[in-house]
Amino acid sequence: MSEPLDDALVACHGCGRLHRLEALTRGQAARCGRCGTVLERAKIGGLDRTLAFTLTGLVLFVLANTYPLLTFELEGRSQQAHLITGVIGLYDQGMWELAALVFVASILAPFLQLMGLLYLLVPLKFGRRPWKLGPTYRLVGKIGFWAMLEVYLLGIIVALVKLADFGTVVPDVALYAFFGLILVIAAASFSLDPRAIWQRVELES
Amino acid sequence: MTAPSLWVSCGSCRLLTAIGPETPGGRAYCPRCGEALSQRKPNSLSRTWALLIAAAVLYVPANLFPVMTIISFGASQPATILTGVKELAAAGMWPIAVLVFVASITIPMLKLVSLSFLLISVQLRSQWRPRDRTRLYHMIEGIGRWSMIDVFMISILVALIQLAQIATVEPGVGAVCFATVVILTMLATSAFDPRLIWDCLESDDD
């Protein structure tokens, strides 16, 4: 067996200084004493809790993508817009670059985030090491850069304010599901404890 | 020191590994998760500068060209980022106007200026308030994505107005430039390595 890895040691990403982390209690964060960068935040629950958030997230994701997002009422006519309608609208106008960006930020990246977590957490729950654990774990961490659900929600709100003069816009099921999805994905990534994953894997080998 | 190996925590799984300086063509990988490791982000300064300059160049058309044109009853009304904010303010929607102004104008400007400042301070080997400079870096890292509000707003407007058939909203070149500026500044921020701020102080501090 190789020399045991000491997972309490960490080199700060802000300035490079080495630290030994102490156990954190709920709500605490460890910061670098030199540059102030957050080294680690206390994790709530364990992998089971992250798995629960992930499953909830997938249900909300399906709701957010199948139900109408907004109902637009104007002179007795009513039209429903879905989450994907914005992407299709941009694509129809010949702006495929923007359509792709909106698609990735509001649909694809969050979906990959949730599926990646599910792929990691389900086998770990049953004591198996997921195939390609390293690459999947790295993908889940990096895809968050492109997922911008919370920004998209504000974009929707600004659009609603601008449209208030034209007619009545009523929020529909998918908008509430979308809001829930933002909270649940944030909860899933806040509860995900990398140490718990790697400890479990190292115990087996 | 003759063998300048450095301890680095993996950016993905946080495992601590000692790695030597970069050898051309050879890269170090995290033994646990396979992430590429380096003592400092490779070519951090030149990559950050390149992305930042590209963003600064595109920042001009992003603000001059219309981000969308509203066509109703044959009359077309182009809107740039700034006129969009003005319209909201004129309609008395102050909180939203301030939000859009901060997200679309203040934040991109702040990012361009702050990142240039960080790059220049590192190149001059400045010793000035490294802790605050690191904090500034983490701040622009966190707020950058919020500039996308306008782009997403346009996508919703295009969709809803098209559905209701009251008018047509055509997204403009400005929107593509603006979205590219935001993405380029996000990439520039992640290409910058805050540890460089501390490298010239290492000797007297550690």
SS elements, strand count of chain B: 7
Q: What integer is the average pLDDT of chain B?
A: 88
Query: What sort of overall outline of chain B do the alpha carbons produce when their principal axes are compared?
Result: elongated
Q: What does the main sheet of chain A amount to? A: 3 strands, antiparallel
Structure notes:
The complex is a heterodimer of chains A (205) and B (206). In chain A, 56% of the residues lie in helices and 13% in strands. With 205 residues, chain A is of the alpha+beta class. In chain A, α2 runs antiparallel to α3 (96-125) and α3 (96-125) crosses α4. The model of chain A has no long low-confidence stretch (mean pLDDT 88). Chain B has 206 residues and is an alpha+beta fold. In chain B, α1 runs antiparallel to α3 (94-123) and α3 packs across α4. The model of chain B has no long low-confidence stretch (mean pLDDT 88). At the A-B interface, β1, β5, β6, α2 and α3 of A face β1, α3, α4, α5 and α6 of B.
Question: What are the main properties of this structure?
Answer:
heterodimer, A: 205 residues, alpha+beta, three-stranded antiparallel beta sheet, 7 strands, B: 206 residues, two-stranded antiparallel ribbon, 8 helices
Helix and strand arrangement:
The complex is a heterodimer of chains A (205) and B (206).
Chain A: E1 9-11, E2 18-20, E3 29-31, E4 38-41, H1 47-66, E5 70-74, E6 77-81, H2 85-92, H3 96-125, H4 133-143, H5 149-163, E7 168-171, H6 173-191, H7 194-204
Antiparallel strand pairs in A: 1-2, 3-4, 5-6, 5-7
Chain B: E1 6-9, E2 16-19, E3 28-29, E4 36-37, H1 44-64, E5 68-72, E6 75-79, H2 81-90, H3 94-123, H4 130-143, H5 149-164, E7 168-171, H6 173-191, H7 195-199, H8 202-205
Antiparallel strand pairs in B: 1-2, 3-4, 5-6, 5-7
Helix pairs in contact in B: 1-3, 1-6, 2-3, 3-4, 3-6
